[in-house]
Design a protein that fits this description.
Elements (H helix, E strand, L loop, with lengths): L1 H25 L7 H13 L11 E10 L7 E10 L13 E6 L6 E3 L4
Amino acid sequence: MRRTQMIILSASILTVAGCGAAGGAGGAGGEPSESQMKEAMLYAMNHPPGIQNSEPITIKFFKKEACDNPTPMGYNCRFDIQVASANIGASMYNNVPQGFFYVDKETGKWAMRPPF
């Protein structure tokens, strides 16, 4: 009986550790949804590191295509996007076909690594 309890306990610990590792790789247990990717991209475009964005950028169209298996950088996902802004430089985002998405450890939300 004691040996059986040890085997069950060991299996339980391994199962919990495995689930934690899988959750850590994908953040919320898997790749980001289309709405999570859109929100992350919108935030990344309007809050570039070290720059004050004077003209807000909006997303007119966003369609998730596919994501690769997770890597240490996050999920490499492809998408179609069309943006609008008075800022002429914002049009460069229309030519971004993919990006790395990850769960930010501080906020717990999906974020996008800068594409440039």
